[in-house]
Amino acid sequence: MEQHVGNHWWVIVSVAGTFIPIVATYCVFRTRQKALEVLKAYAERGDEPPASVLKALQPPESASPYVEAMSQFGFAVILGLGFGLVTAVLAYRGVGGAIIVLGAITTVVMIGIAVSFLIRALASRKP
Question: Based on the domain organization, do 83 and 48 belong to the same domain?
């Protein structure tokens, strides 16, 4: 069993990487639904709702361009390093051909994208 999981770790990571944002989005959805229900109850009574209920219905504050670019930079670095690691492991195990070339190209592209996000983040910093 341990060897079976070891060979398919990437499936577990992929499923978790897909599942976590879905759960987070659902939690935000439920919070807004509950706030709408409370707001409806206050509207039926003719009372003023608390500020916390109104705040829960507002869209989240957007991060600064610097923070957004740095988070995209981190994501691109993780992807680039991940593709590089998988490509290196495959090359070490003797897999050759197009998959190694494709992995190397993808790694270089992702690192290039990461550098562009870093430049954008540094350019958007406020003095």
Answer: no
